[in-house]
Amino acid sequence: MNKFFERRYVVTGIFIAIIFTLLARLYYIQMVDNRYAIYATKNVIRSFIVYPARGPILDRNGKILVQNEPTYDIMVVPKDVKPFDTVAFCNLIGIDREGFDKRWTKAIKYSPVKDSPFEKQVSAERFASIQEKINDFTGFYALPRTVRTYPDSVAAQFLGYIGEAQDRDILRSKGYYRLGDYIGVTGVEKAYENVLRGQRGVKNMMVDSRGVQKGSFANGAFDTVARTGERLTSSLDIDLQKLGEKLMKNKLGSIVAIEPSTGEILAYVSSPTYDPNLMVGRERGNNAAKMYNNPYKPFFIRPIQAQYPPGSSFKPLSALIALQEGIISPSETYYCTGHYRAGNRLVPCNHGEAHGSVNMSSAVAKSCNGYFSMVFQRILERSGAKYTEAAFTAWRANVNKFGLGSRLDLDMPAESRGNVPTPLHYDNIYKKGGWRASTIISLAIGQGELLATPLQLANLECIIANHGFFYKPHLIKAIGTENVIKAEYTKRNYVGIDPQYFEPVINGMQAVVENGTGIRSKIPDIIMCGKTGTAQNPRGEDNSVFVAFAPRDNPKIAIAVIVENSGEGAHWAAPIASFIVEKYLKGKVTPRASGITVDYFANANRLPDLSLYAMDLKKERMRDSTRSARQDSIKKFKADSIKKAARLKATANNKPAGWGSFLAARRSGK
Amino acid sequence: MNNNNNQRSFFFNVDWVTVFLYLILCTIGWFNIHAAVFDERHPSIIDGATNYGKQFIYIMVAVVVGMVILLLESRFFTALSPAFYAITVLLLIIVLIVGKNVGGNQAWINMGGGFRLQPSEFAKFSTCLLLARYLSGANIRVTDPKAFMSAAAIIGFPMMLIMLQPDTGSTLVFCSLIFVLYREGLSPYFLVISGLLITLFVVALLFNPLHIIIALVAFTALVIFLFKRNRQLITTMLIGLAICVTFIFSVKFIYTHVLKPHQTDRINIILGITTDLRGKGYNVNQSKIAIGSGKMWGKGYLHGTQTKYSFVPEQSTDFIFCTIGEEWGFAGSIVLLGLYLFLILRVIFLAERQRSPFSRIYGYGVASVLFFHVVINIGMTIGIVPVIGIPLPFISYGGSSLLSFTILLFVLIKFDSNRMGVI
Question: What's the predicted TM-score (pTM) here?
Fold first, then answer.
């Protein structure tokens, strides 16, 4: 026996002690400290977002305006790719060798081990031939996606388009959107983004240390399914919309048709328009640039963004306010000499025509400027010329009730207000108390500073058709499969005119179509009440305006048509409106006594000379390259200089600066 | 002589407990290598193209080698121990010249056919053998400085050669032989001082050296004050203090001049001086995550996510314990550490029951080497020991390591089966 025998216990003791130290440490990190389990989960699980298809949009009769079409992205994981027949592959997906090399380099540059799209948005037809063969090429696979398609290529400005979310969208959404997500940019896609986008799903995948996917986590127990966006039923009638777009081809302007009994917009035509399919797919960027550079501005949503002087179409409104205020009775006559003398200036009637003795109805029917100037002056001077401002304020409030001068709150972005000038506006030009009814007499006939959008004009007709109220105009009738209707769209908005005052005005409007200025637009068997308008356009020919509703009893449709630079309302806007009305009420367009045909109007080219827009285009380029803040200051400066010019001229000529000089200033200024 | 017995059965008197433990550990290793490199595309556990397939071959070879050892005469090993030592030293020199450089260490000799030999693995065996042979010689006492120096030289020579590769891990393994020397009579102070120096090294890195010295001076003063009469103690304390102070100052020097940057990084990470989870600290952090996420019962065989998806590097060799920790949890860790402790204690038990000092010393060598490997390897995976690349005995993937441990253990089993005989 060895004399150091007892040392075996020391050695054994040390060994046991140290092994137990290891065990203690293991106990700590495996049983006590929970962090490691959490880190492990974080290491291995990557959550991927599953994008739902956007909701489809239907027209009022259930026909499809927008749907989603399946497309396929050919994806590639470069590391997994085995040697293959490149020529066969190129033929299969329809690219050349050079294109292949370019895509291949890009994919490798992105990541050799992660999936990246090799060829994007392969159509379903093309994919049918690819589908069975793609499996022969290891490392490539097809990823189903959806894109928006528009089977009838109509209502582009209504539908709008989607685009990748910008930084500000991401910021505003507090992180809901991520880079590369799609978001509605304009139109209904933007307005109803929250409803259309649906609910994103989450897919939890396991990944290895290089981020390569290794299958689903816990067999998808923690995944959520993507829910398709809600279906929207629009108020548009696709056939009406198509006809409207056909009629407005090669013209600038718009058509807005509303159902007066609901406020549902039946047609929403903005011309020039474009094929919404152009804003989808691989050529989107090029197409968008082309349209953006188009001087006629197809992206300009004329029904709600364009602002026109209403011209004579404003007259019925003038008449109604006068009746309600008790300024005039329907039967009171006025003798028209072909012009009206307001203060020291003359307001001529159209073509200097003398209408002779007119009452309210016939004044509307004949569009007598003299009569309405007289009415307007009476309104403003009811308490004496001294109190013009108070009377004007009251008149303005009445006009505002008809939805002019403020947004109608359409369920679309980017609506314009139009304009009803304020007393302050005139104070600035003529100094306080320095203006009278005669100074601003052009407002009486819908000119001057008065501006309205086509939507506001159409809504005005709804009010007349309804004898004093309107429903908020809207483009989306119902949301989702349960057809939810917003409560605000079922509320009547009264304008403060008693129903009995409408009859004389409507009589006049009926006469416009029966035997007045709008006779060319008479529709067989339908009593349509309308009003033509000819509004001055600072560039080139006047705008042709026509507003109407039909039939007279129990009106089904109210409409406003504006054709820019086309002269009198009777010549262009009125016939176009009549076709739309007839189509809606009868389902077809019948031959007319006046001999006008749809084809004639559809084929006519009324596009203005581009040189008229040359200055505008130049300005636009400049504006686009400057910041919006600066742009505002430039605008303000311009407006100020216009006002100054007008004032100078007024004092120089020693006559009030009415609409004539104002427009003159605008012409020279713009 | 028990010639009759030997003829009756080759395996007479073999300690089956040890053999059984050995086989269990090899099997655990094989299954966990399979789990570590598991791939759905090669689900079969026996596949020559994969690591677990190769490990299966290595185990077969190792078992055959083990049996051959049992068939050989014990005298073969005792008599030829200088020869073994010479051969390994020669190989260690050859490897420095023609060796293959893997991961910064020139530790491998290419044997052809895809197999490589790691001489440092076999150096452990031959060093133990020669040490046993030397210390069991007549009139050799470890307490004798000359004998101690000779023993230290036997251990130090291969250490030096391995250090030149440079393979720090394998070099440090030889330090464990201090337990053998202690058992044979080396002064306990060596153990105490070694422990003290390691502690001081760590403390010196963690705290301001000035504070430590103040604390040590205060402690010495207190002891001297309490034992005024005991002059010898006072002298010892003062000498000790001087050594400690010198050592503390030299730590900084060792740290910046002797150790390599990656070694200081590894120490810094263990001590929490630096945390670089993506770079230098990545391995240990991922290893801890894998083991820690195993919780009590583990994620189940082949269901470990961290190891399967290669978050842990070197997971079939040095970090094989991660797979066990993750898939078998704390329960599996206890079982494995229990098996190792049982094996080591069994080896000590075998060593102590030997009649001949040679077998006993050799047995202690085996126990020390196994112990050192287990503690350093597992300690490194759970972040209490700096990363030192040494394998987990019988479990880590690799033929050289498995074969050398098998030889190490089976030679002891052979000695033990002949313990009644005279060597």
Answer: 0.65
